[in-house]
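Form 7-S
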Amino acid sequence: MARYRALYALLWIGSAVFALSYESKLTFVLFAGVTVLPVLSLVFMVLSGLLLSLEVLPDMNYVGKLQDFGVKVKVVNRFVIPVSPMMIIGTFHDRAGSVIEGRRLVLSIAPLRKSEYVFDGCIQCRGEYVLGIEHAEIFDLLRIFRFRLRKTPMCRIVVMPRRIMLDETTALCTDDYDSSITKISFMESGSFASVRQYKDGDLMKNVHWKLSAKHDELIVRQSEQNLGSSAVIITDLHSVSEMEEVDLRAADAAVETALALTRKIISDGRTAVNIYRTGDARPDVFSAAKPEDYEQLLAVYSVIPVTEAGAGAEALAANAAEYLTGSEPVFIITTELDGDNLAAVQNAIGKSCGGMRVYLTGARPDAALLARAQASKNTSVWQIDPEDISLSLRNSMDHAL
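Output:
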């Protein structure tokens, strides 16, 4: 633009000198025309900008990882002169699966016409993305002025994790949990739905003393909240690298592992209690018992963020104790875990679980972690291959808890 302004300045000076050198009506008209032309060009540019509209129209708002979709940029010129040129700067995806900021698009729109451009591609990591126009401006016909459009539309795209299905012939939960519940129901105030025999680690406040005296053994109240929990899945997505792409891939693998386990547990007729962190880094609990719950959890896990390095799975494990009665398996899915953190997880859960599997998606297990798992006897550690999560899980399920 500076070059065009310099050229216009030279033109104006030349016409002024020409008009002074040759005092005639023709030279004066030439000088007046050169002087007035930028003003007219500015007025037309402002009118064009006020009558110009922008739209960002995605093919769909919810897409799967690496699923092709398009985002259409639509520009409508409602003025009687052409808009040329117009520059749009925004954030859009490409066919390689990347989301690129600062992509430029230069358009020319004829009078009373519209122009459309479609960005096609996919996104390789799950999450919520804001795509669209960040900056848009038009220039006058002389390229010496610019007009910035105030309305720059954007759209939100939610990229969902992959749906991974596990082998239906292998069960994740044993029948020990079902057999441990005493089939006795009570017509009381609804404080509990059933009872079972006492197990190590149960709170004494949950003991039903009157019934224990009758059966000559300790009987524990079984609340409705805990009655159907056949497994607990703790999903931790904390940062393990200074590279954002590495963190996103590790988090995606953790989310897809948790969803695959949840889907498998539901298909076996059981309930999976999922514990994870929300967008504000607070723990949250979601119990999934039917396909509708899985779909809802899929939507939740599409947008939960990667948290900063710090408190990991051990901080979430404290929320698991109330959902365990002694025989349910616990699945710890995390991007990274060391021996000390595993010890903290085990201390938080205590002896109230039937066994523990630790799945790492962002780092390899170190010697201290493996030694701690072997010492506990009921804990195993597994490495998840992000490229073949199904195979990694099948290999772990071949070994009983």
